[in-house]
Model the fold of this input.
Amino acid sequence: MSEPEPPYLCPVDVPLRHLGGKWKLIVCFYLLQRPCRHGELTRLIPQVSHKMLTQQLRELEASGLVRRTVFDQVPPKVEYSVEEAERAALEPLVAAMCRWGLGYVDGHGGEILTTSLPDGFLPSPLKQE
Done:
Protein backbone atom coordinates (compact mmCIF):
# COMPACT_ATOMS: atom_id res chain seq x y z
CA MET A 1 0.00 0.00 0.00
CA SER A 2 1.41 3.39 -0.96
CA GLU A 3 1.80 6.15 1.58
CA PRO A 4 -0.62 9.07 1.38
CA GLU A 5 0.74 12.20 -0.24
CA PRO A 6 1.90 14.87 2.20
CA PRO A 7 -0.42 17.87 2.42
CA TYR A 8 0.02 20.69 -0.07
CA LEU A 9 1.38 23.96 1.36
CA CYS A 10 -1.05 26.11 -0.63
CA PRO A 11 -2.99 25.85 -3.94
CA VAL A 12 0.11 26.84 -5.94
CA ASP A 13 1.93 23.82 -4.48
CA VAL A 14 -0.40 21.44 -6.35
CA PRO A 15 0.69 22.33 -9.91
CA LEU A 16 4.28 22.78 -8.78
CA ARG A 17 4.36 19.31 -7.28
CA HIS A 18 2.84 17.65 -10.35
CA LEU A 19 4.19 19.86 -13.14
CA GLY A 20 7.33 21.29 -11.55
CA GLY A 21 10.80 20.65 -12.84
CA LYS A 22 12.54 21.55 -16.04
CA TRP A 23 10.81 19.19 -18.49
CA LYS A 24 7.24 18.31 -17.46
CA LEU A 25 5.54 21.43 -18.80
CA ILE A 26 7.57 21.22 -22.02
CA VAL A 27 6.44 17.60 -22.43
CA CYS A 28 2.84 18.70 -21.79
CA PHE A 29 3.24 21.50 -24.37
CA TYR A 30 3.95 18.89 -27.06
CA LEU A 31 1.48 16.27 -25.83
CA LEU A 32 -1.32 18.85 -25.87
CA GLN A 33 -0.69 19.18 -29.60
CA ARG A 34 -0.84 15.44 -30.33
CA PRO A 35 0.05 12.06 -28.86
CA CYS A 36 3.76 11.26 -29.22
CA ARG A 37 6.05 8.30 -28.90
CA HIS A 38 9.14 8.48 -26.68
CA GLY A 39 11.43 8.90 -29.69
CA GLU A 40 9.34 11.77 -31.05
CA LEU A 41 9.58 13.59 -27.72
CA THR A 42 13.34 12.99 -27.71
CA ARG A 43 13.60 14.64 -31.13
CA LEU A 44 11.34 17.53 -30.09
CA ILE A 45 13.31 18.08 -26.85
CA PRO A 46 16.90 17.10 -27.73
CA GLN A 47 18.31 18.61 -24.52
CA VAL A 48 16.56 16.03 -22.28
CA SER A 49 18.27 12.70 -21.69
CA HIS A 50 16.47 9.43 -22.39
CA LYS A 51 16.52 8.58 -18.68
CA MET A 52 15.16 11.98 -17.59
CA LEU A 53 12.39 11.95 -20.21
CA THR A 54 11.35 8.47 -19.09
CA GLN A 55 11.29 9.62 -15.47
CA GLN A 56 9.26 12.74 -16.28
CA LEU A 57 6.74 10.74 -18.32
CA ARG A 58 6.35 8.22 -15.48
CA GLU A 59 5.76 11.02 -12.97
CA LEU A 60 3.19 12.70 -15.25
CA GLU A 61 1.49 9.32 -15.66
CA ALA A 62 1.51 8.71 -11.89
CA SER A 63 -0.09 12.14 -11.39
CA GLY A 64 -2.87 11.16 -13.80
CA LEU A 65 -1.99 13.85 -16.33
CA VAL A 66 -0.53 11.65 -19.07
CA ARG A 67 -1.73 8.33 -20.44
CA ARG A 68 0.69 5.67 -21.68
CA THR A 69 -0.87 3.48 -24.35
CA VAL A 70 0.84 0.25 -25.40
CA PHE A 71 -0.22 -1.10 -28.78
CA ASP A 72 -0.23 -4.86 -29.28
CA GLN A 73 2.04 -5.11 -32.28
CA VAL A 74 5.57 -6.10 -33.30
CA PRO A 75 7.71 -4.13 -32.77
CA PRO A 76 5.97 -2.77 -29.68
CA LYS A 77 4.57 0.72 -29.95
CA VAL A 78 4.02 3.00 -26.94
CA GLU A 79 2.34 6.37 -27.23
CA TYR A 80 1.88 9.13 -24.66
CA SER A 81 -1.03 11.56 -24.60
CA VAL A 82 -2.66 14.02 -22.22
CA GLU A 83 -5.49 12.43 -20.25
CA GLU A 84 -8.71 13.82 -21.72
CA ALA A 85 -10.09 14.46 -18.23
CA GLU A 86 -7.12 16.80 -17.59
CA ARG A 87 -6.96 18.50 -20.99
CA ALA A 88 -9.56 21.21 -20.21
CA ALA A 89 -7.60 22.32 -17.13
CA LEU A 90 -4.08 21.82 -18.49
CA GLU A 91 -4.53 23.52 -21.87
CA PRO A 92 -5.37 27.02 -20.51
CA LEU A 93 -2.55 26.76 -17.98
CA VAL A 94 0.04 25.96 -20.66
CA ALA A 95 -1.49 28.57 -23.00
CA ALA A 96 -1.18 31.24 -20.30
CA MET A 97 2.45 30.32 -19.76
CA CYS A 98 3.03 30.48 -23.52
CA ARG A 99 1.48 33.94 -23.72
CA TRP A 100 3.61 35.14 -20.84
CA GLY A 101 6.74 33.61 -22.41
CA LEU A 102 6.08 35.21 -25.79
CA GLY A 103 5.48 38.59 -24.13
CA TYR A 104 8.58 38.28 -21.99
CA VAL A 105 10.81 37.46 -24.96
CA ASP A 106 9.21 40.27 -26.95
CA GLY A 107 10.01 42.79 -24.20
CA HIS A 108 13.33 41.45 -22.94
CA GLY A 109 14.83 39.70 -25.94
CA GLY A 110 15.66 36.10 -26.46
CA GLU A 111 14.74 33.39 -28.91
CA ILE A 112 11.99 30.79 -28.85
CA LEU A 113 12.84 27.74 -30.92
CA THR A 114 9.33 26.26 -31.13
CA THR A 115 6.03 28.10 -31.28
CA SER A 116 4.10 25.37 -33.05
CA LEU A 117 0.73 25.28 -31.33
CA PRO A 118 -2.63 23.72 -32.11
CA ASP A 119 -5.23 25.97 -33.71
CA GLY A 120 -7.03 28.03 -31.11
CA PHE A 121 -4.41 27.33 -28.43
CA LEU A 122 -3.25 30.93 -28.37
CA PRO A 123 -5.06 34.05 -29.56
CA SER A 124 -3.92 34.80 -33.11
CA PRO A 125 -2.01 38.04 -32.28
CA LEU A 126 0.32 36.02 -30.06
CA LYS A 127 1.02 33.28 -32.58
CA GLN A 128 4.41 33.32 -34.22
CA GLU A 129 5.03 31.56 -37.47
